[in-house]
Amino acid sequence: MINSNTTMHKTIEIDGLDIFYREAGKPNAATILLLHGFPTSSHRFRNLIPVLANEFHLIAPDYPGFGASSMPKVDEFEYSFDKLADIVEKLTIKLDLPQYFLYLMDYGAPVGYRLAAKYPN
User: At 101, which helix (H) or strand (E)?
Assistant: First the structure.
């Protein structure tokens, strides 16, 4: 059995890209989606994740071009908030996260607000 304080480093394929994410906590608990800013990555949450892991399920992805996710060239990927939100939305679908709380900072705000507007519940 994995300790809820253990942060797992995972990668999932979305639209042909490898999207890295950190996961910790209790899978049956409320999920918090931690969306990083610029120029950071999910590494930004390395100290916060263990603090919250006993009470929540935590997912902290790296957007394409950030951290350990794929870094496609600018002529191969549209680096826009719409596209980043689309990738994060597809991540939540693949991970079967029908509901989650958002923790936002910097770039995470325009990404997360797009998800909140699309899924207000």
Answer: strand 101-104
